[in-house]
């Protein structure tokens, strides 16, 4: 038996707001990434600020050659985030690839899809964060091999940082990097921190270092910058969120100045 149900059209269209949320951040992340989205939901997303994600193809192992292969995908990855709508910032969330592709090349590729948007890379955000903390001498911890770590050492040295100690863990699969236990990150960070360094940088957006940054600072007495902590900080500040959140680490108490 068919019951006829009357459906009534509303007498007027609904009022539309300019945006569902006041600010919006795009993330271009690797297909294999376990960590960036989780970190940004925890540190960045709110009822005022939305985080929108696009994934691009990536094939392990983590080598300079494989990292460079992502460059042609960046424009399409950015274009797929809220097509034809403006973003307040967009992150390419791969630290080692940012080194081998280059911050400016990444910015150009993303601007081809999203003209004028503020482009954030983990490397540029880390550099800005280290400067905001007053760090000139740094220690660095990466999950990579020596081969993949070498371009990163050169990147920071060319920016004028003195590298007192550079430690790498020798992993080649970013999915394994995401599985490093937080307590292990803490243990390796203690060993990686040279006494004379002003700060420790922990590289890789796959590594869950942002969640233990404040614990590392408490144990070592030195500021810690991680890839995801740096990009989250940069995005929040670019979106006008200047709140001090020391529970996330000293970086989250600092203002953001580009360049």
TrEMBL record:
It holds the Pfam family Amdase. InterPro entries: Ectoine_EutA (IPR014332), Iso_Racemase_Enz_sf (IPR053714), MaiA/AMDase (IPR026286). NCBIfam families: ectoine_eutA (TIGR02990). This is Ectoine utilization protein EutA. It comes from Rhizobium aouanii. The gene is eutA.
């Amino acid at each position: 038996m068919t019951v006829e149900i009357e459906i009534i059209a509303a007498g007027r269209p609904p009022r539309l707001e300019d945006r569902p949320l006041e600010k919006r951040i795009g993330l271009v992340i690797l297909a294999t990434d376990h960590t960036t989205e989780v970190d940004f939901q925890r540190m960045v997303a709110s009822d005022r600020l939305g985080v929108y994600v696009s994934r691009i193809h990536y094939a392990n192992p983590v080598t300079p050659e494989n990292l460079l292969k992502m460059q042609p995908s960046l424009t399409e990855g950015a274009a797929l985030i809220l097509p034809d709508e403006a973003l307040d910032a967009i992150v390419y969330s791969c630290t080692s690839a940012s080194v081998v592709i280059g911050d400016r090349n990444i910015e150009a590729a993303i601007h081809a899809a999203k003209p004028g948007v503020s482009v954030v890379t983990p490397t540029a955000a880390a550099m800005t964060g280290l400067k905001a903390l007053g760090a000139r001498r740094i220690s660095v911890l990466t999950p990579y091999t020596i081969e993949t770590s070498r371009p990163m050492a050169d990147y920071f040295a060319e920016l004028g940082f003195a590298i007192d100690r550079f430690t790498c863990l020798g992993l080649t699969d970013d999915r394994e990097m995401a599985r490093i236990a937080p307590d292990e990150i803490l243990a390796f960070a203690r060993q990686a921190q040279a006494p004379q360094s002003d700060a420790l940088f922990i590289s890789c957006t796959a590594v869950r270092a942002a969640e233990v940054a404040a614990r590392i600072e408490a144990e070592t007495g030195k500021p810690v910058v991680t890839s995801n902590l740096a990009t989250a900080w940069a995005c929040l500040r670019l979106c006008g969120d200047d709140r001090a959140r020391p529970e996330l680490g000293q970086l989250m108490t600092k203002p953001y100045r580009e360049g």
